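Q: For a teaching handout, I want to show students what a protein-ligand complex looks like in token form. Below are the inputs, and the small molecule is zinc ion. Please produce the holo structure.
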Amino acid sequence: MTDTLRRGGCGCGAVRYEIAGAPVALAVCHCRECQRQSGSAFGMSLIVKKESFRVSGDTKVYRRIADSGNPIDCHFCPTCGVRVFHDPQALPGTYNVKAGTLDDTAWLAPGVQVWTKSKQPWLTLPEGLVSVEGQP
Ligand SMILES: [Zn+2]
Ligand SMILES: [Zn+2]
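A: Here is the structure, written as tokens, with zinc ion included.
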């Protein structure tokens, strides 16, 4: 991934962000929590270094305890409720940006998928993805 400036935000525009450096990776997560949170088949996490991420507008934080026991601080817009990014306490150097909130999503290409044991059975993703059955 290149280090083009990328922008995104919530649904109502109160929360906006910029990613200045090259993202680390794009992960697709089929866990039940990502399915519930997105209301869809899977979650998409764009892993970015904290120093390359800048957010404007106030977020509300919901702290969730992952199956691993580690807390994840989930930032969402208090007005429209869109989940914008996660701050996993076990990985202090990175944020997981909810990739569907980017203004331009056309360049996204996942490199890894996790929690495939709860993947929707009708869903076929490209071959060659690194796949993990459960918690990576
Ligand atoms: Zn909003
Ligand atoms: Zn997940």
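A: Two things your students might notice: The domain at 6-118 is CATH 2.170.150.70 (Metal Binding Protein, Guanine Nucleotide Exchange Factor; Chain A). The mean pLDDT is 95.
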